[in-house]
């Protein structure tokens, strides 16, 4: 397409020009000539018929003299730029506007045949040898008492018709040249508007096919080609971002796996070569077990994300009491809260509040949000869980008074493995996948989750769930 498409259009342009020239030079001249001849013949035949019914008929009925008719026909011949004759059926020339009247010398047209125009009202030729060049001749009968007394013949030089034909053909040729130039302008516009942008798009697709997803190009157009270029640019940027995310993902997974594995290997080697004395085994085995627990948690989180991202993921939606799920999830953190002296305050809408969702996955959302809230809260602080009902939706809020999230990190906290600088020191055992899992679960339900945070003051996560029709039944 890179080379042949444009050549096809150029070839089509020249084929159009060649065929246009052939048609104009082959068919138009003959058609124009035939049209002019017919038009001239019709006009002359009308005049000949008029003469035959007026001037010429009066001549044969002795109502007018030959000189008078000659004078009138001479003027008409000049006007028609033709030769007018009156001929007897025998071929004797009675009157000729080209010659003066001479009754003494009789001129006879040899082999005169009035049927020469049979099937038509005109003929082309030298008219029985009476002209040196071809003339267009029309014959109209002169009748009196239902008898043909003679004929009116009007002769027009074909040279005059040929000149008129050539003038019209010149107009046709000029029109053809103008059309050819206009089509050239169309070809130029096609080159600028279609071909060059298409070539840019083709080159871009070659770059993308070669793996260069960061290649950028620009097509300044607001039509479909411009839209195609914009879509292609966007697609490439999304693929490039996806590739970057994938590389980052692999790097993060490798780092998060390598760190605990390095620790486990280091402690085990130290125990094996005697660097760590047997009386210290319990301490370091506990550390090894904690590292393996960290690996297990990371692996489970990755599997969870993989399942959540599977296309067509099915949710086990049921109607359940969200208040009960909140209470049971909060109860599971009792030991952790006691160690940090953290209180969980619950402000729930009603004693029972039904929602329609996947209970197991919503319980995981609450667990991850509470786990983060406790992890980043200070000693002797309060975590507040609150629900509010608005327009057939239940909004669940988990709010802490911990370290908060910097403004520049708010859009990044949902990315896998992301940890803000403020959290790195406090979250040594975290995988950076908790909020990614939360986001995927809420999105799978067709709902939304938002975060409001101020560094040093705490964070609040709010997500929505659809109300259940059971609430109406309870009422």
UniProtKB/TrEMBL annotation:
Lineage: Bacteria, Bacillati, Bacillota, Clostridia, Lachnospirales
InterPro entries: HAMP_dom, HATPase_C_sf, HATPase_dom, His_kinase_dom, HisK_dim/P_dom, HisK_dim/P_sf, HssS/ArlS-like, Sig_transdc_His_kin-like_C
Cellular-component GO terms for this entry: plasma membrane
MF (Gene Ontology): ATP binding; phosphorelay sensor kinase activity
Organism: Candidatus Acetatifactor stercoripullorum
Superkingdom of this protein's organism: Bacteria
Catalytic activity as recorded in UniProt: ATP + protein L-histidine = ADP + protein N-phospho-L-histidine
Keyword Transmembrane helix attached: yes
Record domain HAMP: where: 197-244
Protein known as: histidine kinase
């Amino acid at each position: 397409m890179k080379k042949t498409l444009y050549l096809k259009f150029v070839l089509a342009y020249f084929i159009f020009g060649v065929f246009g020239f052939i048609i104009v030079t082959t068919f138009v001249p003959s058609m124009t000539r035939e049209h002019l001849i017919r038009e001239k013949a019709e006009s002359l035949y009308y005049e000949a018929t008029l003469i035959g019914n007026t001037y010429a008929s009066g001549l044969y009925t002795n109502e007018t003299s030959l000189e008078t008719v000659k004078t009138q026909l001479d003027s008409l011949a000049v006007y028609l730029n033709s030769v007018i004759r009156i001929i007897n059926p025998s071929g004797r020339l009675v009157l000729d506007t080209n010659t003066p009247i001479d009754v003494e010398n009789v001129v006879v047209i040899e082999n005169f045949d009035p049927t020469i125009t049979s099937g038509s009202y005109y003929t082309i030729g030298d008219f029985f040898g009476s002209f040196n060049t071809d003339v267009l001749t029309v014959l109209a009968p002169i009748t009196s008492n239902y008898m043909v007394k003679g004929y009116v013949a009007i002769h027009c030089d074909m040279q005059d018709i040929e000149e008129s034909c050539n003038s019209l053909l010149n107009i046709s040729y000029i029109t053809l040249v103008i059309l050819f130039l206009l089509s050239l302008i169309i070809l130029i516009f096609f080159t600028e508007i279609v071909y060059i942008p298409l070539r840019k798009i083709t080159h871009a697709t070659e770059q993308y096919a070669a793996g260069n997803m960061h290649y950028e190009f620009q097509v300044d157009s607001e039509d479909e080609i411009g839209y195609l270029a914009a879509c292609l640019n966007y697609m490439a940027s999304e693929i490039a971002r996806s590739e970057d995310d994938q590389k980052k993902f692999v790097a993060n997974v490798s780092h998060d796996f390598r760190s605990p594995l390095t620790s486990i290997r280091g402690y085990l080697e130290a125990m094996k070569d005697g660097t760590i004395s047997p009386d210290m085994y319990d301490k370091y085995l506990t550390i090894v077990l904690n590292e393996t627990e960290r690996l297990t948690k990371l692996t489970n989180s990755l599997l969870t994300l993989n399942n959540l991202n599977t296309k067509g993921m099915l949710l086990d939606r049921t109607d359940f009491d969200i208040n009960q799920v909140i209470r049971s999830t909060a109860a599971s953190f009792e030991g952790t809260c006691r160690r940090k002296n953290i209180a969980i305050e619950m402000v729930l809408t009603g004693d029972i509040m039904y929602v329609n969702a996947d209970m197991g996955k919503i319980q995981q959302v609450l667990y991850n949000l509470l786990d983060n809230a406790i992890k980043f809260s200070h000693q002797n602080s309060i975590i507040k869980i609150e629900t509010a009902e608005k327009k057939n939706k239940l909004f669940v809020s988990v709010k802490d008074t911990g370290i908060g999230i910097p403004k520049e990190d708010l859009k990044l906290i949902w990315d896998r493995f992301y940890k803000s600088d403020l959290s790195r020191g406090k979250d040594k055992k975290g995988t950076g996948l908790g909020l990614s899992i939360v986001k995927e679960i809420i999105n799978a339900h067709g709902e939304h989750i938002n975060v409001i945070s101020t560094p040093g003051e705490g964070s609040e996560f709010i997500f929505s769930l659809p109300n259940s029709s059971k609430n109406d039944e309870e009422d």
